[in-house]
Records
---
Amino acid sequence: MIELKNVSKTYNGAKKVVENISLAIPDGEIIGFLGPNGAGKTTTIKMITGILECDEGTISINGYDINKNSIEAKKQFGFVPDNPNLFLRLKGIEYLNFMADIYGVSTEQRLNRIEEMSRRFDMANALGDQIQSYSHGMRQKIMVMGALVHEPPVWILDEPLTGLDPKSAYVLKEMMKEHTANNKTVFFSTHVLDVAEKVCDRVAIINKGKILFTGKLDEMRNHFKSDESLEKIFLEMTENE
Ligand SMILES: Nc1ncnc2c1ncn2[C@@H]1O[C@H](COP(=O)(O)OP(=O)(O)OP(=O)(O)O)[C@@H](O)[C@H]1O
């Protein structure tokens, strides 16, 4: 469970790019964070994960405040950033062991977990190579594997499906479903409506830093039909596919 209460953020004291957001992201459902480019998705995710501090409001993850009890809060989640070009000089396996070390995963647990994820993502033969030799999709997959190696209850993923080949996207979607079937949390951002429609149980729609809608997808469609400004955003997100 992730809870945001009255969260706001400005960069350099300028206009608020996130304005008074309140959101409850429950367990047991895949929640899509949907909005056009520049809407404030990444900024919000950076505040949830403690990379940025919010100017106002509070954020908690499974009850731990990300700013007041940050270590406990950070143990609760795995985070996949939108840019997978990180730790490029490490070999895949070195990166996974590094992440497992940070989160105190035992040797036996990490072996099982790495074996399972590399089989599902078809990465077993690449783990001995440096990440800089990987394709974009492979870099994304190793980031996902690193984020999930400690089996966090809460998954936070920023545009995780962009650039993944169809098979890997399918695998990740299946993993998200399995995770929420175990009553855990999956929160991921996308600017592509089609992705949200294929994966999410519920969506939260953000535009210009404000939450415009939260609810189920069929409710969203009805909402779009009856609201001109939402319809415009809907079109923008469809065009971005
Ligand atoms: N470091 C920064 N300094 C100043 N403004 C920023 C900074 N980072 C983001 N912004 C601005 O904040 C707004 C929200 O950006 P953000 O990256 O959160 O949007 P987003 O919804 O994730 O977009 P995208 O889908 O393009 O990634 C944008 O107007 C962006 O230009």
---
Amino acid sequence: MFVLLNLKAYACDPVEIAAAAADVADETGVRVAVAPQTAAIGRVAETGVETWAQHVSGVGSGSHTGSTLAEAVADAGATGTLLNHSERRRRLADIDAGIRAAERAGLETVVCANNPRQIAAAARLEPDAVAVEPPELIGTGTPVSKADPEIVTDSVAAAGDEVPVLCGAGISTGEDLLAAAELGAEGVLLASGVAKADDPRAALEALVEPL
Ligand SMILES: O=C(CO)COP(=O)(O)O
């Protein structure tokens, strides 16, 4: 299972969480990546943890003020990027351009979507993986794998054989992770369960413990 930890814009210490994630990955062999704020990518990557961007713009270098270049986040140490997160929705053409920009920069891509229909469309754009996250469950602590297991199994079917599916929203425990795996997800995307925890290291350790 791939554990992709999205720190969003939470008021957490990204380096402390990244160092804990690097240790947990080393100690358990579980693939754990951290997606911090863009400005923290370099500092997070220095911990040795697999580092992702939360978003890249679908542009190359040029006159694009305020954009986030895929090449720039790759230079800073990121090896992958989320695209079209529920809190950063893009139009289809922008998602396509974002995937192509990420590919040019050598970044792995996970395209997020709300439901199995959107997962089918996202998978046709040929990202490395897709992630289904029902927006109504994000940040609730109610795991998608329990509240709406069919959205995961239907997304796995919709994505087809070629594109792995992650699931997210409300995932915070090892039990949630196992449930996601049983539904066919190859990873989880999570945020508040670790980023807002009093002890993020302990939260991460407990999360991967049953794997
Ligand atoms: O949006 C998410 C991850 O990208 C899920 O957030 P929560 O884990 O806080 O529900």
---
Amino acid sequence: MSKELRTLTREEVALHNKEDDLWIIVDAKVYDVTKFKNLHPGGASVFLPEDIAGQDATEAFYGLHRHEVLLKPQYKRLQIGIIQGEKSVIHGGIPGELSQVPYAEPLGITEGYHSPYYTESHRRFQRAARKFVDEILAPDAMAREEDGKRPSLSVIQQMADNGILAMTMGPGKHLKGRSLLGGVIKPEEFDRFHELVLAQELCRPNCRGYRDGQNSGATIGLPPIIHFGRPEIRERIVEEVLSGKKFLSLAISEAFAGSDVSGLRTTATKTPDGKHWIINGTKKWITNGTFSDYFTVGCKTDKGLTVILVERGEGVETKAIKTSYSSAAGTAYITFENVKVPIENTLGPEGNGVFVILSNFNHERWAMCCGGARNMRFIVEECLKWVNQRKAFGKPLHSQAVIRAKLADMISKTEAAQHWLENITYQMQHMDYKQQAQLLAGPIGLLKMYITRSAQDIARDAVQIFGGRGITKTGMGKHIEHYHRTVPFDAILGGAEDVLGDLGVRQAIKAMPKNAKL
Ligand code: HEM
């Protein structure tokens, strides 16, 4: 039962300023810390100075704690009253609502700004996605990132029921008949900008391992089945995965070869009757691999690289790899030993695996750009809040020019990334698959390189702004520490940064007109 809060004057609170009778005010709320002080992680002595005991400690509190501390039940119950005639105004964000911090949201969805891309349908969709993420996803994300367990199946089920798993595959027939976020838009309305909005909202809890744990194996591993699978396989597996019943991973990279797909060593040889493949080899860094039921596997065959769908079963072993993010992502090392697979599981023509794999890359890299650009923005928001509430040398941190210069750089990079991303998204919206492959592989490669380089600059600057807190896993800088530790993932997964930059330039050189001379 919640206790009755008292209405108190500041004068009344001031009388409780002794070790055995100790109250403080934080944001118009009165807390009795008499007993708590001996359990306080920051020590008891911090409560005793005369400007804290019985006084308003709001500024001191927010210089040292995140707002969420006061929301935890064990601390919330320390509140005994509220100051007469005052209201508490600080909140750590209202679930489902846009942040009011400048640059915390893409300009296109920020109130007062205009956009050539976002319509009322996108904005409505964004609000529904934000609510889902804040209320359902974020609590699970934080808990699983902490304990390293895979995302809770109940949450995956809710993602499936709301069409989220299906929407991460982009617009298309697979959305038909689904209720998207409780019917907030119709399946035929869903376009690339809805997809962009969704991809960015899903990142907001800033739990990088968990984010990859939410079926991102399927986001990259299912399209080859949608586009190249035989109808009977496609129908069964796509439905099982998008309804959250089964999990699937893309299994291309190996200890022997990553970005260089032609160097893969996993082999598939046909049985003498030609009815099965026998697969042998290993795969490494396979997202969701520890818990996936299906694997979309790149194999060497007589006719060259071939992509084959493999079901978990005899001869398939997966074990967890420890990476710098949490094991919620299920990153695995996989061994295939004489795994027998029906020939019908071949995806696309034999020997055409490079095309099957490459045709997927644009969408995968674009989706990673969506997340990368959003994560940069989240760090800008954290830094803006921190420099505003933290004092150093008697002044707020933002009064230091060097801090403002860092923020200027961070904000510019974040805005540049988002605007370039939105332009590419607009191109995707108006191009068919073939045009995208021809015209967008280079720009998407360059964009991803730009985002991951900028993200690493932002991570480094954010650590400087947060100081020791930026390298501490709990407390004020916990998101900065997490970001700085996990930001290299984007620079590696889906094509290493340098390889992608090079791809963009090589494509430009290839497209140079013969008559272009200085
Ligand atoms: C109801 C009031 C308060 C509660 C519930 C509370 C709770 C906590 C908690 C949970 C931590 C661990 C770090 C974290 O999770 O952020 C902490 C750390 C700390 N607290 Fe408090 N606190 C309160 C008020 C204060 C006040 C008024 C001061 C200073 C005047 C203070 C000074 C500190 C310090 C110095 C630390 C260590 C910070 C660090 O390691 O960076 N606390 N407090």
